[in-house]
Design brief:
This protein has about 260 residues and is α/β, with parallel strands linked by helices. It has one domain (about 60-245): Rossmann fold. About 50% of the residues lie in helices and about 10% in strands. The chain is built from 9 helices and 7 strands. The chain has helices at about 5-25, 35-40, 45-65, 85-100, 115-125, 155-165, 175-190, 205-220, 240-245, and strands at about 75, 105-110, 130-135, 150, 170, 200, 235. It has a 7-stranded parallel sheet with strand order 4-3-2-1-5-6-7, with helices on both faces. The longest helix is centred in the first third of the chain and has 22 residues, at about 45-65. The chain is globular and about 50 Å long. The chain starts with a helix and ends in a 9-residue tail after the last helix. About 30% of the residues are buried. The model is unreliable at about 1-30 (pLDDT under 50).
């Protein structure tokens, strides 16, 4: 025999489910950036998602239109924490000088550190200096050496723009963001989703130990990559060495 307490609990459980269903109707389970969580304070519904898709589309359209006005792009990555006067700041600035003198467009993430140094080098030689920045809660400043810039709300649209059309990709020592961008480009080339393009890692001490680990672990121990994959990058120590690989690179269309 079922007790009245159990029946009461069951009845109340059904009522609670009905209320929850009413509240959640039209809601969509989708991960949101933390900023949007703060804006909405509740799960997004399908209408919210639709407008968010349009916002993403607009960023892509505007981003590609912005890049279409440039040519001979070289994208430079590296730590936002590099200080003015440090070794890699100076080397990035020198590379910006050299690229501008030879008619290349310098593209960076538009922020401080290595990005500022590369833009500064191009700016000093009256070259094209572009910054593709990201809008953050604690806003990342656009460095003063960006001549033309574009701000992005979503990290992934900005990443696509940084990877879209450069004819060489340069990586100075940096953190997780630099490593993420580096391995993404290497993977796109490895899987033939992008034409073979110079990938240049500047800083033998920094990158050499990582590449040695990839050789011993990813290649020799795990057989997770092919021997030829190790040749997808060039590791150098100076701006001049990097430019030797850049100067004869071919201009490419988007992807």
């Amino acid at each position: 025999m079922v007790s009245w307490k159990r029946m009461f609990r069951k009845k109340n459980h059904h009522k609670a489910l009905e209320k929850t269903t009413e509240k959640m109707e039209g809601a969509v389970r989708i991960p949101l950036p933390s900023m949007e969580h703060e804006e909405t304070k509740q799960p997004p519904n399908m209408n919210d998602i639709t407008w968010r898709i349009f916002r993403i589309m607009a960023e892509f359209v505007e981003g590609f239109q912005f890049l279409s006005e440039s040519s001979r792009e070289v994208t430079i990555f590296g730590s936002a924490r590099a200080l003015e006067g440090s070794r890699w700041y100076n080397e990035a600035r020198t590379l910006g000088n050299i690229l501008a003198e030879h008619g290349f467009t310098v593209i960076t993430g538009g922020g401080p550190g290595i990005m500022e140094a590369a833009n500064r080098g191009a700016f000093e030689k009256n070259g094209e200096s572009i910054g593709l920045n990201i809008q953050l809660p604690t806003e990342q400043r656009t460095n003063p050496y960006v001549k033309r810039g574009r701000g992005f709300y979503y990290f992934f649209t900005r990443k696509v723009m940084l990877a879209a059309s450069a004819q060489a990709y340069i990586y100075f020592p940096g953190g997780f963001g630099t490593l993420d961008e580096c391995f993404e480009i290497i993977t796109l080339i490895q899987t033939h989703k992008m034409q073979k393009t110079p990938v240049i890692l500047i800083g033998k001490e920094y990158w050499g130990s990582l590449w040695a680990w990839i050789k011993t672990q990813a290649l020799e121990t795990q057989q997770a990559i092919a021997p030829k994959d190790l040749d997808l990058v060039h590791i150098v120590d100076t701006a001049e060495e990097a430019f030797a690989y850049i100067k004869n690179s071919e201009e490419r269309t988007l992807f």
